[in-house]
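C-alpha cells help. One example:
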Amino acid sequence: MLTQLHILLTYTCNYECDHCFLHCSPRSRGTFTLKQIEDVIVEAIRIGTIEFLYFEGGEPFLYYPLLVQAVQLARDYRLKVGIVTNSYWATNEEDAELWLRDIAKSGVSAIEISNDEFHFVDDERELPKIAQKVAKRLKIPSISTITIDQPIFDLNSKEAQTKGTAIMNGGAVFRGRAVDTLVKGLPTRKWNTLNECPYEDLKGLGRVHLDCFGNVQICQGISIGNFLESPLSEIIKNFDPTDHPICGPLLKGGPAQLVKDLGLQHEEEYVDECHMCYLMRKELLNKYPKILTPRQVYGLD
C-alpha cells in the first residue's frame, strides 16, 4: 500500500557524490514549482493512504523559500512531513537555527541528515553534528542520519567463511553514479543468479518518487506514469506491475529476467542486482523513453 510520496524538490545539488542514485550535481536541472507541489498534495489526499511526504533532492535547502512553503502546505493538509538534507547550511549553531527555525515552526516531523565521507571531508564533518544538535534544540520529533561509506568486501567475515562468498560492506547501492565510480575491484556474481529486486516494493509500492517533470518513479529512473499528463491518484489506482515492461520481468525474476524476456546483451557477472538492472535499463532507454526516464538519472543529458 502506498503510504509515502518522496518529492524530489530539485535535482540540483551543491555536491556531486560518487554514490548518488540520481546523478545529481550543481549542473543538474529541474525544480518543482509551488503550484506543482500543491497539485501533488491534493492528489495525495485523493489517494487516501498517504501518511508521509518527504522533500529531498538533490538538495532541497538550495530552494529554501520553496521548501518552507511546501512544508507548510503539506501540514495544512495534515500530512506528516520529512526532509532529507546534506546540511551544507549548518556552518555554525546560530546559522543552523536560522535555517531550521521556520521549518520546525511549520511542524516538520522528521529530518534525515547525510553524514558520510561522500559528502564531507574532514574539515566539514561537524556540519551534520551541528544540524542534529540544533534540530534537537528546536524539538523536531525525529532526527536521524544517513551514513553510506565506501563499499568494501571482506573475505574473512564469518558469513563469508560459511557461505564461501565475499561480504560487501559500506551501504552503497549500485545504481546511478555509483555504477560509474564505485564498482571497480568489487566482487561479482553470475548474472543468472540475480533473479530478484531486493530493495523496491514493485507490487505494493509503499513509496514513489516524484520529480518536476511529472515522472512517478517506483525506483530511480523507472516511471509508472506522468502526473502532468494524468492525475497521480489515477496513475496509482491503475498501476499493474505485471503489465509494466520493466517491473513485470523484475517481479518475475529480477534483472536476469529482463535479459531473458528482452533478449539483452550482458556481461557474465555483476556486483549486485542493482548494478545489472541499471546497466540493462540503460540499454533500453531508446526503446522505453517514457518509462526509463528522466535520462539525467542515467548520467545523460
